[in-house]
Amino acid sequence: MRKSKYTIQIENEKEKLKIIELPNHLKLIYDFMPELKSFSLGISAMVGSREDPNDKPGEAHFLEHQLFRRNQHRTSTQTTREFERTGTINNAFTESEYTVFFIKSLNEHFKKVFRLLADFILCPVFEERDFLKEQKIILEEIKSYEDDPEEYIFDLGNTLVFPNHSLGNPIAGTIKSVSNFQQSDISVFFDKYYNAENLVISYAGSHSLQEVSDFANELFIDFKNTETKYSRQPIPTNILDKLIVKKKIEQSHILMLKRFDNINSDFILKLKLLNYIIGEGPSSFINQNIRERQAIAYSAFSIVEHFTDTNLMQIYFATDKNAISKSKDLLNEIFEKIGNKKITQDLFTISKNALLAQNIYKNETSYERMLNNIRLYQLDGNFNFDRDFEKNIKSINYEDFLIWASALFKDIKFSEVQILQK
């Protein structure tokens, strides 16, 4: 057996997961899923809107859009047709801490569509006409967000919990920032952050590790590998704040936010479970008390967002302005229940089982595996936490969880955004 020319950084033979480093330092996450007739592959730059200059929010997102426009080999129309000709699904998105370009395709088209995707990053062309067209498109995108209170309120919420910080800015930027962009802003961002040290390729499918790694190396062998010298701005002090905005809308929208600056994997797992109990599942406190029993909200839920150095719980509901006070009273009753250890064992068990099932469903599709591996790499590569999810979630003891949740929610206070009816 010949010695591999690639450096294996993480290897889980049982789960068929490997992370290797190619000769130019680009990382490849290989997740073997035997017998699949299709595969999913993502190329991720481990930078996102968090790397935007504070006075120029939206650069990372704008770059993602423009990389789709044109490269040295094809126009966007030509690329789209080549993907469509093979039945390939392709897209991209920008998050706070990473940007992903991905494909899902049939096995027989592996090399062709991988090359098409790689060209977005290997040989982009930054032309003024493409820049101006994309600028108009993104400005319309921002307007659509601001016209949708359920979207807009989450952008406003980030400004409260991450004041004067790039995490507090909208990922797409603002009308002002995007209107003032120059083509040079976008190309400079690309030159600064898009290099082999910052790229991760995530593959999930049935091609051999040798085939995937050899072709990835062939494509990216000459891609720039200069190390990016930058450090992320530390998150700001965790403070409470409140913001009220009035608009001509039919409902009032309320968002409550709480930052938890603890990135221990045990804490994160319990926080996921607690979030499901509070407002993610059909049996959750919020769905049962605010929607089903009181019928004062159609949309009401909670979510948890994870960053490399913090976690953000967000509780949202929309209701008539006359029902805001009652809704908040109901939420305070929920918080008191948690603080007083009043989560029933039945709800605890339902929520654990639901999270376990979600994890199984996710791991049975190549797209979710590919994308989840990128997320885990972004969160400091905590793969053991995810791969042992079933064991870890089952190991959470009911009594211990009540004590933990009670300590977390005893006298808890939230930041709050209100978009009220005029």
Write up what this structure looks like.
- The strands form 2 sheets. A 7-stranded mixed β-sheet has the order 1-2-3-7-4-6-5, sandwiched between helices. A 5-stranded mixed β-sheet has the order 8-12-9-11-10, sandwiched between helices.
- β10 and β11 form a beta hairpin.
- The radius of gyration is 23 Å and the shape is globular.
- The longest helix has 20 residues.
- The chain is an alpha+beta fold.
- The termini are far apart.
- It is built from 16 helices and 12 strands.
- Helix content is 45%, strand content 20%.
- Helix and strand succession? EEEEHHEEHHHHHEHEEHHEEHHHHHHE
Total number of helices? 16
Task: Walk across the major sheet and give the strand order.
Answer: 1-2-3-7-4-6-5
What does the radius of gyration come to?
23 Å
Instruction: Report the mean per-residue pLDDT as an integer.
Output: 92
From the structure above, extract its key features.
422 residues; single chain; seven-stranded mixed β-sheet; alpha+beta
